[in-house]
Structure formats: C-alpha cells, structure tokens
Amino acid sequence: MTEQQGIDDTNPLNDLEEKLATGGQPDANPVDVILSFLNSEVYIISSDTVEGIDSQVEPLVLANADGDPVLAVFSHPSRVDQQYLEAAPNVLGTQGAAIIANIGDELGMVINPGAAYGFEINPEGVANIRRDFKRADEQ
Q1: Which helix (H) or strand (E) is 45 found in, with range?
Q2: Domains and CATH numbers, the chain
C-alpha cells in the first residue's frame, strides 16, 4: 500500500467518491449517493483473513461522537488510515449492497472515517436504505 499513501485526500478516486463530493451541494440528490454506494465495491477492514467463500469475518467497528457503534467502510483501499490498519490489517472488498443487507439493526455505518469524502448513517438510516432500495431482481 505504500504507493497509495501519497494520494490526495480531496481528489475523488471513483464514482462513489464523486457522488460523495457533490453530496453536500444544494442541488445534490442523496439518492444518487445511496445508489452509488449500493452498486460500488467498498472496503471493510478486519483482523480476520478470508479463508474461503463461506468464511466469516469480524469487521472493524468504531465508536462515533456519541459513543454509538458504527461499522467502518471505505470507498477505496487508500482511504484506510494507518491507525485502523494497525488494529485490522486485512482490507476486504465487497458490494455496498452486501454491507447494507448484513449490517444488522443496531449498527450504524461510517464511510471513510476522518477523510474528506465521507458520512455517517445511523442504524435507522441503514434500515431505511434496506427498506427503500431493493435490487432490481428483487422487485
């Protein structure tokens, strides 16, 4: 990962980051950000390695400003801060939709903690996304 450490934190690296960058603008559509997240490969980090297709991992969970647990999710492997890698050195890619489907009801989510492009979703917001956004083959 040494070649990625010099990446500019304010330069969007993929479609999801482009949507996150425009998400705070007055004419931004939050649905675009959510759809991009659901359809993008995103990254979680874990102290566990993936042994096989059915292996389970315990992803890194952080505490937000209120002390509530939030799943740390990253839009690009280079967005994972070194301090997180020390606790959970394995960077694992998955679809954003898989995160939403498997996160549970008591856990919020933070995208790119500490980075320029990121946001936090509380457990209710995660449940709303799960309820309101279905895969095309589920409708």
Answers
A1: strand 41-46
A2: 41-134 (3.40.1350)
pTM: 0.87
Say which residues have a Cβ less than 8 Å from residue 125's Cβ, sequence separation at least 6.
108
Q: How far is CA 53 from the centre of its chain?
A: 21
Mean pLDDT per 10-residue segment, the chain (139 residues): 49 93 85 94 90 77 95 96 94 95 94 89 96 72
Residue 131 three-state SS: helix
For β-strands 69-73 and 108-111, DSSP reports them as parallel
Nearest by Cα to 22 from 131, 110, 100, 119: 119
Nearest to 113 by CA among 61, 67, 66: 61
